Amino acid sequence: MIVSLAGCLVVGGMWAWRWWRPVEAPPAPPGPGALAQAAVMGGVPAARSGLAVLIAEQERRVRERPKDAQAWAVLGMAYVEQGRRSADASYYPTAEQALRTSMSVRPRANVPALQGLAALASARRDFPAAREWAEEAQRHDVRRWTTYPQLIDAYGGLGEHKAVKKALDQLMELRSAPAVSARAAGVYRDLGWREDAAAVLADAAAAAEQPAERAAWLERAGQLAWERGEREVALRHFAEALRTDPDQRAAQAGWGRALAALGRTSEALSAYRAALAAQPSPEWALELGELYESLGLGRAAQAQYDLLLTGARNAAAGGVDEDLVLGRYEADHGDPREAVRLLRAEWARQPSTAVADALAWALHRTGEDEEALRLAARATEARDGGGVRSALFAYHRGMIERSLERSGPARRHLAEALQINPYFSPLHAPAARTALRELGEPGVGDVPEELGGEG
Fold first, then answer.
1. Angle CA(231)–CA(235)–CA(221) in degrees, nearest 5?
2. Where are the beta strands (DSSP E) in 181-263?
């Protein structure tokens, strides 16, 4: 009896212990550095605060383990992302040093470092180098999906549209994720498939797990809406992006763009100034300068153009090619012949659709309209890769045709520019409306090109 009772106590005690033992706590959520590392290595935007933590962690790690090739690669990619998000090109030489150190430690099949070098080259707008590094990474690991967005960036910057489509198809076979949807949206936008692009961007923003990533896709959705002339929709996307991630400065500049189109000029100027104070992008400085110029504020406009030139010089010191935005500035506000020089070199090196348009406009500004029209056609006709529906590109082509006295095509392209986005530029949209009025109604001789009219 005593034995039985003892046995019961032992068994009961074991069951009680199993029943009442403390439940193990769930693992702690990843810290900001770990989240930033996952984002950087996964090719998605990372939070600025997390990047600072990640850089400090990886700097400590490489000091302790100087032969850790992976740590050097992560550090280099973190510097690239920090430079991109801050528009501070001084991060790029440090990034290159870290990535090349990783390659020296592990010279064979070092895919993370190769991807980092490709990302760095794209950030510097050196698309031939980006293609070279990304294709080498692909050769070592054809199944690694994070290489394909870099291939898409490089091929797009080189005007290799068939290669862009092939890389996207490969990417979508390998991976389904918000970052992939966002990348697909960019390709669809360049093909002129605006509705498809908007749909997949909405999916990407809804499925993004981290605020910085979600804000980035919302900003792109806002830019897409803006390009379609949907001011209120764009404003909502930009505002939501800023609420999600206050460091999303591209959304802040976009917010200014949409506010200006809505006539809320004081708010627009404040938004642009805040964006530029945190991220001095030469492109945004050009936009703000043109907004000031449209308001008759020449001195304020010149201050922004000076900021653009300073930013471009600083970027060049970090290895960034800003000749596209410099060429656009010189064509309209500086020396058009200098614009032609810059953009001819850019076209020879990386002939993208955007460069074709900019060079066409610079040539027009120097009176070389026949050559300008050939390039403008490349920028606007789908058969030449110009599938993107850009109001600015259509405007440039229309004005070139007007100068050549091709009234029918000029009227059509100027009307197309205003149909795509009536607010595409505070300077050029009013000029398009004026030119269209001066061209007047179509005459008897204005036969469409496809029916044998003016080409």
1. 90
2. none
Q: What is the CA radius of gyration of the chain?
A: 26
347-374 confidence digits (pLDDT tens): 999 999 999 999 999 999 999 999 999 9
Task: Give 387-429 pLDDT, tens digit per residue.
Answer: 899 999 999 999 999 999 999 999 999 999 999 999 999 999 9
**For residues 380-403, b (16+ Cβ closer than 10 Å) or e, as one string?**
beeebbbbbbbbbbbbbbbbbbbe
Mean of the per-residue pLDDT values for the chain?
92
Q: Residue 385: pLDDT band by 50, 70, 90 thresholds?
A: confident
* Cβ contact 292:258 at 8 Å: no
Cα–Cα distance for residue pair 42/37, rounded to 1 Å: 8
Give the angle 116-117-120 at the CA atoms, nearest 5°. 85
Q: Which two tokens stand for residue 406?
A: 């091709």
Residue 446 scores a pLDDT above 90: no
Query: One-letter amino acid identity for 179?
Result: A
User: Measuring CA to CA, how many Å separate 30 from each of 36, 46, 50?
Assistant: 10, 14, 11
- How many CB atoms lie under 10 A from the CB of residue 113? 28
Report which of 400, 418, 405 is spatially closest to residue 446, judged by C-alpha positions. Answer: 405
pTM greater than 0.85: yes
Residues 435 and 414 sit within 8 Å (Cβ to Cβ):
yes
Closest CA to 219 of 200, 199, 205: 205
